[in-house]
Sequence to fold (114 residues):
Amino acid sequence: MNIQDIFLSINARNFDAQTAWWTIFIGRAPDRKPMPSCQEWDLTPSVLFQVLDSPDNGPTDVSLRIDDMDKEIARLRKVGVDVPDPQDVEGFDTLRWSAFTDPEGNKVNLLEGS
Fold:
């Protein structure tokens, strides 16, 4: 198997509200709308993130490793996203995480370190 891209998808009951929340969370508008039921962001050259108009599917989990946890938490709090203080992950030298949910109950994990 030669994987070219990874798609992370969030199922949305309220597509417009979820798109707005993830736009604020990511800090920019979607890169494209490949179909009426999908908004899509390029997170890295091979990782694409999608909000899907999919009211019948349940919540999902998204884990994102970021460079500067404190900076991103401050930015998110400034735009109204309730993010808890990061916690050290037991058994790792420098790994910290912060877990919370988006408005529809999808779990979002921010990770920093290793």
In short: The chain has a mean pLDDT of 94. The chain is about 20% helix and 40% strand. Strands lie at 6-12, 32-35, 38-44, 47-53, 61-65, 87-88, 96-101, 107-112. Residues 64 and 110 are 5 Å apart (CA to CA).
